[in-house]
Amino acid sequence: MNIITLGPDGSYSSLASKQVQRENPDMDIVYSNSIPEIFAQRKGSDLAIIPIENNYGWPVHDTMYAIYQQRWCVQILGWISLRIEHCLAGIPGSSIESIEDIYSHPQALRQCEKNIAALGAMPNNVSSTTAHIPHMKEWEAVICSEDAAIANGLSILDKDFAPENNITKFAIFGSNEVDYSGNKLNGEKFPKKQTIAILSVGDAPGALARALTAVAHAGLSLHFIESIANKTGGYDFPILIENPEGLDIKDIVKDFDFGVQVI
């Protein structure tokens, strides 16, 4: 059994994954380059540990969209909350006063947007901060962890560039068909706590409201919902719900005849 997560070693995702590995030493960590690649690599009983939301950067849309693309109804076995401590780093010899452009992943840029604005610098999205580092100029900086800055030979311009209490929640995803009761998190067995499913709703008045009412009547609490327009003119809604009994969401909405499906 492997843990599939975002690399490289030393990334925040790897730190979250190592917390699980410490309690489950038989698991190996395998690094991927992107969230969609994690879902493509995950096989059988493998776990996927992926960032879901940040209290400053809002939901990680790459995660929800990857689940949507995979059409995968997944179980969340647990959560890891990790304090994110970003620094601002530049090439050796640069100064914070000279920085005009700041590069990082969109989530990190959102988390640090007030500090970026205070510098009067321009935020620039990159899919991989590490990949951008070899191309940096003296007027550029990146937002990264202190360990990543040191490992890549950068100078730290501001050690505490992230806001206080910057917390990212990582979800531990597993397969619906696998019993993980022999594995542990924080000294307890993995439960089947939550489910992410996708409700596909036709263009019918009240369809989504009635489908969510059915979810509520089943005793399942809704934690998150996102809207994505689909190719048929309707809408798909990834939802995150409390589901301690591992109920099949398809069974809950199967009696509707107005275009609601679980995909």
From TrEMBL:
Domain ACT as annotated: residue spans: 196-263
GO cellular component terms, semicolon-separated: cytoplasm
Top enzyme class: lyase
Keyword Transmembrane helix assigned: no
InterPro entries in the record: ACT-like_dom_sf (IPR045865), ACT_dom (IPR002912), Preph_deHydtase (IPR001086)
Entry keyword set: Amino-acid biosynthesis, Aromatic amino acid biosynthesis, Lyase, Phenylalanine biosynthesis
PROSITE patterns: ACT, PREPHENATE_DEHYDR_3
Pathways per UniProt: Amino-acid biosynthesis; L-phenylalanine biosynthesis; phenylpyruvate from prephenate: step 1/1
Annotated catalysed reactions: prephenate + H(+) = 3-phenylpyruvate + CO2 + H2O
GO molecular function: prephenate dehydratase activity
Protein name: prephenate dehydratase
Protein source organism: uncultured bacterium
